[in-house]
Write a structure and sequence with these properties.
Largest interface: A-B, 25 and 16 residues
Structural class of chain B: mainly alpha
Largest sheet of chain B: none
Oligomer: heterodimer
Mean pLDDT of chain A: 89
Order of helices and strands of chain B: HHHHHHHHHHH
Number of helices of chain A: 8
Shape of chain B: globular
Helix content of chain B: over 70%
Radius of gyration of chain B: 20 Å
Strand content of chain B: under 5%
Largest sheet of chain A: 6 strands, mixed
Strand content of chain A: 35-45%
Helix content of chain A: 10-25%
Distance between the termini of chain B: 46 Å
Low-confidence stretches of chain A: none
Order of helices and strands of chain A: EEEHEEHEHHHEHEHEEEEEEEEEEEHEE
Number of strands of chain A: 21
Mean pLDDT of chain B: 91
Chain lengths: ~325, ~230
């Protein structure tokens, strides 16, 4: 399948510190992809690179298999719509902003009216169409910025933290608008978020970013610290790891690899066993997600049957058990 | 004190009866400084926006040079242009010496660095999201510059007004290049200098009051623009 983007040997640093280091990454065309990561993981920098508003210090980015040189051609630029985390609306009304986007993208004038009306209606912005953009509320502003980014019908829509600082009602509205856009033929949506559930709700794929690096590890149960031979010290817990990687600074444990028990497991292959307090029980896609505080918070996913058998209640003391080989080190 | 009060009264009287000589001087002065401001603005605004937007080698040096030129004494510009425009100078045959054009050129050169520097400052002070937003919307160089000017227009206009204020109050270059010819190159500042040296205190005082009013109006405009900006 043709990738929307192909990144190779990308490196971006600020003040000598690497904020992005991606040897190779492909982003699928015609699919929704979520970039997951904590604050400062490099999500916004990567989004800026994908939108070609920032250039990497090293490396190449191919857009739809074509390597982009010093600058994008007008045609390439028209294929990308980008909405930043805190969108900036230009002087004038929402409609003026959409008109300007069409003008800058050199879309023939006779098409302007139809495109603007279609986009305003797709994003439920008809009532705000002639409102001064400076007076829009947070949710309206995000939708207006998305409208401006898709009015010229790009194939790829990039959204940097689209749901941040929004209330639940606006989040639902925005999710539905993004789904509608993504459902159209040949549309690719790439958005960044720190909310894993949000990513699962909208995206077909997700990419995890930790400290500027792409990792296959899930971002739940992610710990920072230092490895000492076959142990990893998070500052609060000593965790047995399978690999002897002295340079590793992060570990992650897949929640599905954690065995929750009411007694410590005395099994030679399960080297990690920590007691903790059950602080959260939640249902998630047919499974039960538990949050257990063992000094470090651990997420574990169990079946509803296990929940019933263990007769767990909030505040109970339970044991978190996992093998050293279940720990991803990076 | 009586002499001073009498002079003020005579100056007011000159202004109130719209003395043709005074009107002519005011017109010449405003015409020359406005022309210089328009020419300087047409060059300095695009240059300032381009400099703020582009990254290039030697940008810091140019910035230092602009800062230095902002403080350049007007007589130095007068001296250099006098050398160029005088009969024996390289541009002597253009016959510009002692014409309003020579003063316009001098004032435009004088205020160009001020306007350019204030334009650079205006663009740099704009919202940092402005340029990436325009870039992501596909703005090429010229549309980008026009949008940036549109967004920062109040701050840029404040720079133009500051430049005009400097031009109309300038005396050194106007004196050296204009020659203070009555009805032709006599500006308010050169007239004040001449009339005062002749002992004609009233005329100088009347023109001084006009200059003060202009300064007041310009400052008022600047504060209105500052309010509009915020």
């Amino acid at each position: 399948m043709t990738p929307a983007y192909q990144l190779s040997d990308i490196r971006v640093s600020y003040d000598g510190k690497d904020v992005l280091n991606i040897p190779s990454l492909s982003l699928c065309l015609n699919e929704s992809t979520a970039l997951l990561g904590e604050n400062g993981a490099g999500k916004s920098t990567l989004m800026n690179l994908l939108a070609f508003v920032q250039r990497p210090d090293e490396g190449q980015i191919a857009l739809l298999t074509q390597t982009v040189g010093a600058r994008l051609s007008a045609e390439q630029r028209r294929r990308i719509g980008y909405v930043t985390q805190q969108p900036y609306m230009l002087h004038g009304s929402v409609r003026d902003n959409l008109k300007l986007a069409l003008r800058l993208q050199q879309i023939p004038r006779p098409q302007h009216h139809a495109l603007i009306e279609k986009t305003l209606s797709l994003l439920n912005l008809m009532p705000q169409a002639d409102q001064d953009a400076a007076t829009l509320s947070g949710g309206e502003l995000k939708r207006a910025a998305i409208a401006r980014a898709i009015v010229y019908e790009p194939d790829i829509l990039l959204l940097d933290e689209p749901f941040s600082h929004l209330d639940q009602r606006h989040i639902r509205q925005l999710e539905s608008s993004i789904r509608q856009f993504a459902a159209q033929d040949g549309k690719t949506v790439i958005f960044s978020t720190h909310d894993r559930l949000q990513a699962m709700a909208i995206a077909n794929n997700s990419i995890n970013l930790v400290n500027g690096r792409v990792t296959s590890a899930p971002l739940l149960n992610l710990y920072h610290g230092q490895s000492q031979q076959q142990l990893f010290n998070t500052g609060k817990l000593l965790i047995h790891i399978g690999e002897n990687d002295t340079g590793a600074r992060h570990i992650a444990i897949d929640p599905r690899q954690i065995i929750v028990s009411d007694q410590p497991l005395h099994h030679t292959s399960v080297l990690n066993s920590f007691p903790g307090r059950l602080t959260q029980i939640a249902e998630e896609a047919g499974h039960i997600r538990l949050l257990i505080d063992c000094g470090e918070p651990f997420y574990a996913v169990i079946t509803p049957t296990s929940l019933h058998n263990l007769a767990l209640q909030l505040g109970d003391t339970v044991w978190v058990n996992f093998k050293a080989s279940a720990v991803s080190v990076f | 004190m009586g002499y001073f009060a009498d002079s003020f009264a005579a100056a007011f009287a000159l202004l109130l009866k719209l003395d043709p000589e005074i009107m002519r001087i005011i017109f010449t002065s405003v015409f020359i400084s406005l022309s210089a401001s328009v020419i300087a603005a047409l060059l300095a605004i695009p240059a300032g926006v381009a400099m703020a937007l582009k990254r290039f080698k030697g940008k810091a040096t140019i910035q230092h040079l602009l800062n230095t030129l902002m403080a350049m004494p007007t007589v130095v510009i007068g001296l250099l242009l006098y050398g160029l425009f005088s009969r024996a100078g390289p541009l002597g045959e253009w016959g510009l010496l002692y014409t309003p054009t020579a003063i316009i050129i001098a004032q435009a050169i004088l205020i160009f660095p001020i306007m350019m520097n204030l334009t650079v400052t205006a663009v740099n002070a704009a919202d940092p999201r402005l340029i990436p937003t325009l870039r992501s919307l596909g703005a090429r160089t010229l549309p980008m510059m026009l949008q940036v000017i549109r967004t920062t227009r109040f701050a840029i206009l404040a720079g133009v007004i500051t430049g005009f204020g400097r031009a109309i109050g300038e005396v050194g270059a106007a004196m050296m290049l204009g020659g203070n010819i009555e009805g032709f190159t006599r500006t308010m500042t050169t007239a004040i200098a001449l009339e005062t040296s002749k002992g004609e205190f009233e005329l100088g005082l009347a023109l001084g009051m006009v200059l003060l009013v202009i300064a007041f109006v310009l400052n008022f405009l600047l504060s209105v623009l500052n309010r509009a900006k915020s």
